[in-house]
Every structure is written in C-alpha cells, then in structure tokens.
Amino acid sequence: MTKDQLFVYIKQQKLGVLSYLGPQGNPQSALVGIAVTPELEIVFDTVKTSRKYPGLIANPAAAFVIGCTGDETLQYEGIAREISGPELPRYKAIYFTGWPDGPSREAWPQICYFVVQPKWIRFSDYGDTPTLIEEFKF
Fold it and tell me: Per the confidence metrics, is the pTM higher than 0.90?
C-alpha cells in the first residue's frame, strides 16, 4: 500500500473515532467527522466547550480508528494542534470538501479546527487471504 492509496482510503471515510487523554489523564474517545490532506493529516472541527478541546490542548497526542464497518480498518497515531492564522483557510477548504455543511457550523459559538499530523499508521485488511497488515512511520 502506498501513501497515495492510504490517502484515497482515508478520504473515502467520513468518520473516525478519536481517542485522547483528558486533562486529568483519563482516556476519552469521540466520533468525529474527518477530512484528510495529501500529507495524510486529519482535519476535524469541534467546539471549545467539548471534552476533547481541553484534552487535546493539554496533551496533543491523538489516535484514530477509521473504517471499522468492514474488513478494512486503519489505526492512526499523531499529534493534534488547533489550526489558526494564515493556514486556517487552507485546512478549512479541505475539511469543507468532505463536509459541505461545514460552513454552516462556522456560526456556532467557539467553533475551532484541529489538524493531526501522522506519526504511525497501520492499515489492516482482514478480508484478504493472507491478511494484509502494513505499518507506516512518519
């Protein structure tokens, strides 16, 4: 599997389970709408009043499980950061491509956007014989 194939696979997925540590170090997870960049960065929106916001600000380590409806799944670990400044329009454009209703959420109080840069990815296809499992480190 190539980086381009990983990009296509992630781009086809609309949702991912985000896991992170809460401010007190307790494990937490949330289902989020995702988009992906060609660099395999995952982009999502949230609000600052959510549980995930203070958790990711306090500890940016993040993990995803993506594509858990069939035999294929992707595990993803990376570093999250809130997007701001001149790079925000680029990431929002990527996110809005996958989520055309995203601009309507910009009116929500305390809406914000995160990007997660990959550190480790494992793609597994349990429908293949033999099972396909590939790991990537960044």
Answer: yes
